[in-house]
Amino acid sequence: GIARKFAAEGARVLVADLNGEAAEAVAGSIGGAALRADVTRDADTRAMLDTALARFGGVDILVNNAGVGHRPQPLESLAEAEFDRIAAVNMKAVYFAMKTFVPHFQQRQKDARGVRGVVLNIASTAGVSPRPRLAWYNASKGWVITATRSSAVELAPFGIRVNALNPVAGE
Q1: What's the confidence (pLDDT) of residue 170?
Q2: Can you spell out the DSSP letters for 58-123?
Q3: Confidence (pLDDT) at 5
Q4: In contact, 121 and 94? CB cutoff 8 Å
Q5: Active-site annotation holds for 137
Q6: Whole-number Å distance between alpha carbons of 41 and 44
């Protein structure tokens, strides 16, 4: 949905997804580019930037949209492997993306509005108003919100805007 809306507004979109076939299908339907990427891997995040630079010559907007949850359960019952997966996808992927894309934005010329780049982090209302029995998902989305606020303050002087969106549910 996000990729389709950006494309409808005239953006050239790189669709990066762990499911390469799904990325190809969406990219094909919007005239974009596709890349199979695991956002929990630094090298794959770098490949996202390299692909966007090769295909489009630059990046204006980064959308960190990957996210996973867990089934409602007592906080002490979540398996460590599941916790690690939530932390990797919901938090570490944002870290990798920011680490990779922010230097690119810092090197760009400011546009007419004084902006060099934009980061949109998809968090959740769960990070603002936690839901019962989803402690670790809630915490991961709270982390995204705090990381966004911290990044926004730090990067504003460079002309880089950082915002979080907190949907309840989406397609």
Answers
A1: 60
A2: --SEEEE-------S--GGGS-HHHHHHHHIIIIIHHHHHHHHHHHHHHHSPP-TTS-SEEEEEE-
A3: 97
A4: yes
A5: yes
A6: 5
Give the relative orientation of helices 80-87 and 135-155 as an angle to the nearest 10 degrees.
20
Task: Look up residue 45 and give its two tokens.
Answer: 């995040």
Contact 99, 62 (CB under 8 A): no
Per the DSSP assignment, residues forming a β-bridge with 63 are 120
Exposed e or buried b for every residue in 53-72, given b needs 16+ CB within 10 A? eeeeeebeebbbbbbebbee
How buried is 77 (Cβ within 10 angstroms: 0-12 exposed, 13-18 middle, 19+ buried)?
A: exposed
Instruction: Give 118's strand partners.
Output: 61, 161
Pick the catalytic residue: 3, 137, 144, 151?
A: 137
- Indicate the residue type of 123: A
Q: What is the pLDDT of residues 140-161, one digit of tens each?
A: 999 999 999 999 999 999 999 9
pLDDT at 49 over 70: yes
Please report, in angstroms and rounded to a whole number, the separation of the first and last CA atoms in the chain.
7
